[in-house]
Amino acid sequence: MDSKECSFVILISGRGSNMRSIVTRMAKSSGPRRGKVCAVISNNPDANGLKWANDQGIETCVVNHHDYPNRDLFDKRLAETIEKYQPDYILLAGFMRILTAEFVRKFQGKIINIHPSLLPSFPGLHTHQKAIDSGVLWHGCTVHLVTADLDAGPIIAQAAVPVLPEDDANTLSERVLSVEHQLYSEVVEGLIQGLISISGVNKIQVAQGVKTTFYKESNNVVHV
Predict the structure, then answer these.
(1) What's the 3-state SS for the chain?
(2) Does the chain have fewer CB atoms within 10 Å around its N or its C terminus?
(3) What is the edge-to-edge ordering of all strands in the sheet holding 60-62?
(4) List 65, 66, 115, 128, catalytic entry
(5) What is the pLDDT of residues 165-211, one digit of tens each?
(6) How far apart are CA 136 and CA 73, in angstroms?
(7) Beta bridge partners of 182
(8) Is 115 a catalytic residue?
(9) Does residue 120 have a cis bond before it (omega within 30 degrees)?
């Protein structure tokens, strides 16, 4: 990785709100190293985040999963598209496709995801309703390294929010999303500045003093 620049490809499927937060934070960074989003790629041609990325001058591309008869062929084409940009990292930001083991192996140690739960609790879909149904007092999100096992890769950072008695899946989702945006962009900034690094296959190294756990009690995210 160039000491002055760290490059990313971001994968989205919808509005790309986490992608927007990452790009916005990257533009405001005052650190010695620079970050660059080489491309935003979506499996959905109607994803709202594509227009926003284009408006920021970021190259966009669609690899529509409906154009491929199976996941293997879709992932092969997606991998070919990503390889054109040679990114340091691939960020999954609301990318609603399960990646094949072969795809993950090809980019081993470079794929990062944000999942809307405090993993290992509630992998997969419908996490907010699962949290409410289980009766947990805290819920949140996890930034983790992607491995071939769904939502099971090494944890990089987490943020927690309280589950309130009056919550439903929608209100809890909104509260989690508010910390997702900060957490993911914080991790990306750490990667850019070399404060968070991935070595070997799945070993995460975090510089001393870098906070990777957050919680939200009211309107502010507080370090713990």
Answers:
(1) CCCCEEEEEEEECCCCHHHHHHHHHHHHCCCCCEEEEEEEEECCCCCHHHHHHHHCCCCEEECCHHHCCCHHHHHHHHHHHHHCCCCCEEEECCCCCCCCHHHHHHCCCCEEEEECCCCCCCCCCCHHHHHHHHCCCEEEEEEEECCCCCCCCCEEEEEEEECCCCCCHHHHHHHHHHHHHHHHHHHHHHHHCCCEEEECCCEEEECCCCCCEEEECCCCEEEC
(2) C
(3) 60-62, 34-42, 5-12, 89-92, 111-115, 138-145, 155-162, 213-216, 221-223
(4) 115
(5) 999 999 999 999 999 999 999 999 999 999 999 987 778 999 988 98
(6) 40
(7) none
(8) yes
(9) yes
pLDDT score of 69 more than 90: yes
- Residue carrying the six token digits 């003093």: 209
Q: What is the longest distance spanned by two Cα atoms in the chain?
A: 49
CA terminus-to-terminus distance, the chain: 31
Q: Count of CB atoms within 10 A of residue 91's CB?
A: 26
Of the CA atoms within 13 Å of residue 196, those in its CB half-sphere come to 25
Q: Sign of the CA dihedral 16, 18, 19, 23?
A: positive
Token pair 């199976």: residue: 70
Spell out the domains of the chain, with CATH numbers in brackets: 1-107 (3.40.50.170), 116-142+157-224 (3.40.50.170)
**CA quadruple 72, 10, 96, 79: dihedral, nearest 10:** 0
Residue range 97-122, pLDDT digits in tens: 999 999 999 999 999 999 999 999 99
